[in-house]
């Protein structure tokens, strides 16, 4: 395809909204080959980046037809490369190419144009997330555009049953004030890669439902902040209501998923006393909670994370249309993967963060990814989900 006929320009809501929404409805997203999801942006195609400090959407047009779109955002975050720890990061997301126009170089044109915007805004590194099994994305960003695998994450997806469960009587759960939550995160998680410098804006966003801590019964949390004491074991997490931004719809799923959904609903209807967990209807649009900022300390902290996840599940049962809870954890954090409930067939065991240095004087495109993680904890910015 000759590039002369392809036009790349900034998104204009008056001109492009209907075309971008139609493209979103026709383009599938992850998390695995066996599961196909479609997104509904509910009339706001830039909803996924609107809460970021800086953002941009580009569209690709062939004649009067909109054939591709890409989104990007910019923030200041930690990247542990001496002598500085903070860097300007550009995040690439939402690349969609119309099915009939794939493998024509449109994706690479959009990505390169977005990188130009990053460079014009003094961005140090561009990064993106892709599933390990997404051959088209891996081929484009790693094999053609020079990105390098940086970290491996696991996306854990847990369906929301309509029943709330009783929490362990041996665990205390408390909601933190925003100032307390920010203090804890900055004290214990600033050693993680890509920790956002504007954390306070995230925690104060209306989509952030709050931050909770869990600790053993009989221990006190009240002294924290005055003398820096924390319980012998504790865990924390925050919750972001992504369903207020956009909806998901399942287009394809494993037969086992479909059969379990139908069977569990039938048994629950006929024999409600069995209290069998029922799987929601994923084939109509649904919302989800995103759990972020998961951190734990102490020998009992794994179980405490599990208790917090149960607490979040009970919250979700009271939110109309919320059908799943999504959590991303470090790929090598086996303790969290053991204690956070999830359904394997809907989850993604290997999601890659891929990185590219944009400044010529920094020859770190492949050096930084080789550096071992400074911690098993990760902080996934909920504005980039």
From TrEMBL:
Residues 6-161 form the N-acetyltransferase domain. It holds the Pfam family Acetyltransf_1. PROSITE patterns: GNAT (PS51186). InterPro entries: Acyl_CoA_acyltransferase, GNAT_dom, Plant_NAT. GO terms for molecular function: acyltransferase activity, transferring groups other than amino-acyl groups. It comes from the Eukaryota. This is N-acetyltransferase domain-containing protein. The lineage of its organism: Eukaryota, Viridiplantae, Streptophyta, Embryophyta, Tracheophyta.
